[in-house]
Amino acid sequence: MRTACAAALLLLSASAFAQQQRPAITGIAFVRVYASDVGASAKFYGQTLGYSATQERSLTRYPVNNSQWIEVAPLPSPAPATRLAAVAFTTRDASALERYLRTHGVIIVHPLGADPSHKGFSVHDPEGNLIIFVQQTSGPAVAGEVPPTAASRRMIHAGFVVRDAEVENKFYRDLLGFKPYWHGGRTDNGPADWMSNQVPDGTDWLEYMLNIQPNATLKTIGVMDHMSLGTTKMTDVVAALQRNHCEGADCTASKMGRDGKVQLNMYDPDLTRVEFMEFKPSGKVCCSPILGKAPSEEENR
After folding, report:
1. Are 29 and 88 in contact (CB under 8 A)?
2. How far apart are CA 301 and CA 297, in angstroms?
3. Cis peptide leading into 78, omega within 30 of 0?
4. How far is CA 109 from CA 74, 95, 124, 135, in A?
């Protein structure tokens, strides 16, 4: 019995030590999307959503706040099935996190220092999504100002198509420490169509978009592969879009989401969804409770 207890304590200690070796992952740094028409993309992100652009070689950046931004890259040839190019998270120690992932057998696609445009490194998750980890800084992480025309000043989550949640969870939950946040479906008693995992040391989250057909159209993929910008009141977003001369029914079409949060969906010229979402639920939350702390505009910014 004592031997079994000692072995259990040793395993527990080893697990705790491994947890301590993983540096903090604090939130989303940026989402990178592809654009087939640079001018049309600039009109959407710059004029309609109200952000100011900065240029870094072929990348166009739109600061959402001092530490988060939207990145737009030219569409490569041949064009990929998705226009979502990468999701990036901030970490308090990029070098230590890179070592941690190498130790656990994760292949580093671009090592720390390989890309001079940001202090970070990149990997592929088990389903091939490009995930970048960026060093958190004490000062502004991105050049440029956020103008008063900006429809939101906080990115709160990103989502993409996931084929096998269990496989992805081994990476995001077991290895990186992401925590269950909320899951829900189109019907109360049906399978989960959305599964959200909150970063271990912040309030941003990653949303799995489940049960998507393998032959889904670019339009459907664009709905699923998305970024979400937060707001306290959706009326503020609608007012900002109107001031920015937003055109079309989407500009005012807010609705209650299945997670009880008011949302409004816009689509860039390449059909990638930009979802505006209130920070806190104000309606009925279906399917599961929301387990994590709600984000806010001020947190870690």
Report:
1. yes
2. 8
3. yes
4. 20, 14, 7, 16
Question: What pTM, to 2 d.p., does this model score?
Answer: 0.91
Q: Any idea what the Cα angle at residue 233 is, between residues 227 and 237, rounded to 5°?
A: 60
Looking only at the bridges linking them, the beta strands covering 155-161 and 205-209 are parallel
Q: Domains in the chain, please, with CATH?
A: 25-135 (3.10.180.10), 155-278 (3.10.180.10)
- Whether residue 252 contacts residue 146, with contact meaning beta carbons closer than 8 Å, is answered with no
Q: How far is CA 146 from the centre of its chain?
A: 19
| Coil vs helix vs strand at 42 | helix
What one-letter code names the amino acid at 176? L
Position 195: which residue type? M
Strands across the sheet containing 262-267: 179-184, 194-198, 205-209, 155-161, 226-231, 273-278, 262-267, 255-256
In degrees to the nearest 10, what's the CA dihedral of 242, 253, 270, 68? 70
**In contact, 157 and 204? CB cutoff 8 Å:** yes
Per-residue pLDDT of the chain (301 residues; tens, 9 = 90+): 444 444 443 444 444 444 558 999 999 999 999 999 999 999 999 999 999 999 988 899 999 999 999 999 999 999 999 999 999 999 999 999 999 999 999 999 999 987 766 789 999 999 999 999 999 988 788 888 999 999 999 999 999 999 999 999 999 999 999 999 999 999 888 889 999 999 999 999 999 999 999 999 999 999 999 999 999 999 999 999 999 999 999 999 999 999 999 999 999 999 999 999 999 999 999 999 999 999 998 774 4
Strands (E), the chain: 25-35, 54-56, 59-65, 68-74, 84-91, 108-110, 120-124, 130-135, 155-161, 179-184, 194-198, 205-209, 226-231, 255-256, 262-267, 273-278
